[in-house]
UniProtKB/TrEMBL annotation:
One of its GO terms (molecular function) is polygalacturonase activity. Keywords: Glycosidase, Hydrolase, Membrane, Transmembrane, Transmembrane helix. It comes from Nelumbo nucifera. This is Polygalacturonase. The chain crosses the membrane at residues 23-49. PANTHER family: PECTIN LYASE-LIKE SUPERFAMILY PROTEIN, PECTIN LYASE-RELATED. Belongs to the glycosyl hydrolase 28 family. The lineage of its organism: Eukaryota, Viridiplantae, Streptophyta, Embryophyta, Tracheophyta.
Amino acid sequence: MVETFLGRFHFHFDNRRLDFKRWISALISSHKTLFTVLWIVAFASIFVWQRSIVDGLRIFGRAHPARPIPRLRPVAFNLTDFGGVGDGVTVNTEAFERAVTAISKLGSRGGGQLNVQPGRWLTGPFNLTSHMTLFLAEDAVILGIQDEKLWPLMPPLPSYGYGREHPGPRYGSLIHGQNLKDVVITGHNGTIDGQGQAWWVKYRQKLLNHTRGPLVQIMFSRDIQISNITLRNSPFWTFHPYDCKNVIIKNVTILAPIFEAPNTDGIDPGEYALFMFFLTVYQFLLFNK
Ligand SMILES: *[C@@H]1O[C@H](CO)[C@@H](O)[C@H](O)[C@H]1NC(C)=O
Ligand SMILES: *[C@@H]1O[C@H](CO)[C@@H](O)[C@H](O)[C@H]1NC(C)=O
Ligand SMILES: *[C@@H]1O[C@H](CO)[C@@H](O)[C@H](O)[C@H]1NC(C)=O
Ligand SMILES: *[C@@H]1O[C@H](CO)[C@@H](O)[C@H](O)[C@H]1NC(C)=O
Ligand SMILES: *[C@@H]1O[C@H](CO)[C@@H](O)[C@H](O)[C@H]1NC(C)=O
Ligand SMILES: *[C@@H]1O[C@H](CO)[C@@H](O)[C@H](O)[C@H]1NC(C)=O
């Protein structure tokens, strides 16, 4: 009897427990579903909110008029006037070359200014000319092309007589100048980015057959001014004035990762006669992402 009673009781209890369990698990699973839905909604709304903050900032940024580019030479051009496209993909080497050719004809009239507007302007190496101002707007980035086949070779530096890393010719610099006078590279803290990462990896893996090129190299020239810009991730030395007179460097930021960026020296003056540094902002070898 007792056993039966207990058995029945157990039976009933088990039944109830089963019901209760089912009810609980249904509740839990519906809660789970609800919770999952709520979680997705919350996550999505945070995501949308974040996006709108970013967009808001972008819109906010755009709402501010772009800082007007000052006129520093009698004649000024935009890189777009020469077919430049700042989409980070189009190669602008020829646009830069056309601009430099146009400015080279203005020397007797005080020279010319080339404005690089906000955007990402991919380019292979190009040469500057005398009486030229290269002006990089805020958020203008000149990007060095990473394919070394598009980097012309040059004779080794006279002081070495051979390539610094390999015998024979060396890669030229991304922005180069020789036998020039009165050259200014300035801006509203725009950037010349050598995209050196690919070069550093190839250098370490011994895949390069020639010495890497500097980011900006000016040789046998005078009256050179580099100011108010950022130079970053050079394949090799960052700024290399060689056998130049009256070089002024002012308010320039130089960035490269501390590790894994071999020989990306900031400024390597070589064989100079008269040289002046005015580095009010000089961050050399900083981490960057
Ligand atoms: C360069 O472009 C700006 C607009 O971004 C325009 O206001 C200016 O007139 C242009 N300058 C030249 C020289 O074409
Ligand atoms: C720049 O000029 C130098 C000297 O004339 C020349 O060796 C070099 O190939 C030129 N670089 C480019 C990219 O045209
Ligand atoms: C340095 O450059 C920044 C960014 O373009 C500018 O705001 C600042 O006025 C410059 N400082 C000097 C001393 O020229
Ligand atoms: C210029 O830009 C660089 C990199 O974007 C930044 O690190 C530096 O602080 C800026 N300089 C000034 C003076 O705003
Ligand atoms: C280096 O030279 C080797 C052998 O001539 C060639 O196969 C290779 O493509 C060259 N590498 C570069 C980056 O030019
Ligand atoms: C640097 O930028 C500041 C602020 O725009 C300007 O006052 C100064 O004249 C510039 N200096 C040089 C050397 O370009």
